[in-house]
Specification:
The protein contains 12 helices and 17 strands. It is an alpha/beta fold. The protein folds into 2 domains: 121 residues, Aspartate Aminotransferase, domain 1; 238 residues, Type I PLP-dependent aspartate aminotransferase-like (Major domain) (Aspartate Aminotransferase, domain 2, 3-Layer(aba) Sandwich), CATH 3.40.640. Bound molecules: pyridoxal-5'-phosphate.
């Protein structure tokens, strides 16, 4: 069977083969199937989106029904599905009660950047090293470092990064008086699955407030139950001004959202919008996803199964893994060797996993993954990391395109 080859850009020519060397044609529950019919446990949720696994009956039924009812409805018209979703989001995210619906994570971040500037009149943005917020120019300006920054220059002015936990550096940036937004993840996903310290996060929120800046939590990867709470910031009693969501929100259907307080006001006419944002099909998918997560208690399931998986990996990998960290069903393992090698060997055994930097393995299994399958995943990882490796004879990197520069 084929193996991942060198990381390729996610720009597709006709006949693009995918740098993981697999053509996936079908999904069912936590599994995906390649063109030969071989089954893989998708411990990536397809990069964090398929929270309910693949082809969940409630999601496919909601989509089929909505597709047959009304797919398109521009936001100059009200829509029943959109309003139902906005009501549900307002319940879940209280006291945040106003939303902008879009189609991806980077768009949700862009909306927060723009609204923070409009609300505060300040162009400055502080984010954190190792953070990841997207690939469009605003979110990339809050993300990229080093050579990638030079390659893309000029990025947006006024964007600065400080190290998580470096309160003096943050204070120095805030003293400049131009910062309108401080933007952080709660668990830095792409940057290596680093849960940030709760005391540090509360101090960041407070420092931002005292300096007259707004505080945004990017929950694109951590939101909707992934970490064993509805939203990652709930682990730390934070009270953000903005929460960005995407990935798992639609259970696999593209949708993004930024939540904020109505006291921040409305978009002045013409300052923002999206043709597809809030379309009924995506809203129906998000509603069905939130429904299943609630009905099946998947937030608690993620907490419980994530803890069991972490314990098994810690016990079984021993000192062959430097660290197993994470929250809920969002785990990172710091390996001794290249993450790409381990990814390839797990793929060969029927398990899809992710990288998050050159030596970190990242696990984001669907929240519906049965405990027995997570145990099989843990056993396979323990087997692979404890058996001898001949790195000279393994395929090169299979990293998430665009994340190579995210390491601090
Ligand atoms: C925390 C975070 N923010 C933003 C993004 C960008 O999301 P998208 O790829 O949907 O634009 C990602 C994607 O990995 C992410 O993890």
């Amino acid at each position: 069977m084929s193996s991942p080859t060198a990381a390729a850009p996610s720009v597709h020519d006709a006949g693009f083969a995918g740098f993981r060397g697999l053509e996936l044609v079908r999904g069912e529950g936590p599994w995906v199937f390649d063109a030969t019919g071989r089954r893989y446990l998708d411990a990536t949720s397809m990069y964090g989106v398929a929270l309910l696994g693949h082809s969940h009956p409630a999601l496919t039924e909601a989509l089929a029904h909505q597709a047959a009812t009304l797919m398109s409805c521009f936001s100059s018209y009200a829509n029943d599905r959109r309003n139902a979703l906005l009501n549900r989001l307002a319940e879940l995210l209280e006291p945040l009660d106003r939303f902008f619906l879009c189609n991806s994570g980077t768009e949700a971040v862009e909306a927060a950047l723009k609204l923070a500037r409009l609300a505060t009149g300040r162009p400055g943005v502080v984010s954190f090293s190792r953070g990841f917020h997207g690939r469009t120019f605003g979110s990339a300006s809050a993300t990229v470092r080093g050579t990638q920054r030079d390659q893309l220059a000029p990025l947006l002015e006024g964007f600065r990064q400080v190290r998580p936990g470096d309160h003096a550096a943050l204070a120095a940036e805030l003293r400049r008086g131009d910062v309108g937004l401080v933007l952080t993840e709660v668990v830095q996903g792409e940057g290596g699955v680093y849960p940030l310290d709760g005391d540090d996060l509360r101090a960041v929120q407070q420092a931002a407030r005292e300096a007259g800046a707004l505080f945004a939590v990017d929950e694109v990867q951590t939101g909707v139950g992934r970490t064993g709470r509805w939203f990652g910031y709930r682990h730390h009693d934070l009270d953000p001004d903005f929460v960005t969501l995407a990935k798992g929100l639609g259970g696999g259907v593209p949708i993004g959202a930024v939540a904020f307080r109505s006291s921040l006001g409305r978009w002045p006419a013409g300052t923002h919008g999206s043709t597809f944002g809030g379309n009924p099909l995506a809203c129906a998918a998000a509603l069905a996803t939130l429904d299943v997560v609630t009905r099946e208690g998947l937030v608690e399931v993620a907490a419980r199964r994530g803890e069991r998986l972490r314990q098994r990996l810690r016990a079984g990998c021993g000192d062959r893994v430097r660290e197993v960290r994470g929250v809920g069903l969002m785990l990172g393992l710091d390996l001794e060797g290249a993450s790409a090698t381990t990814q390839r060997r797990l793929q060969d055994r029927g398990f899809l996993v992710l990288g998050a930097g050159p030596r970190t393995l990242r696990l984001l299994p669907p929240l519906i993954t049965p405990e027995a399958e997570l145990d099989r995943l843990a056993d396979a990882i323990i087997d692979v990391v404890t058996e001898p490796v001949d790195e000279a004879h393994t395929a090169p990197a299979a990293t998430h395109p665009g994340t190579a520069e995210q390491q601090a």
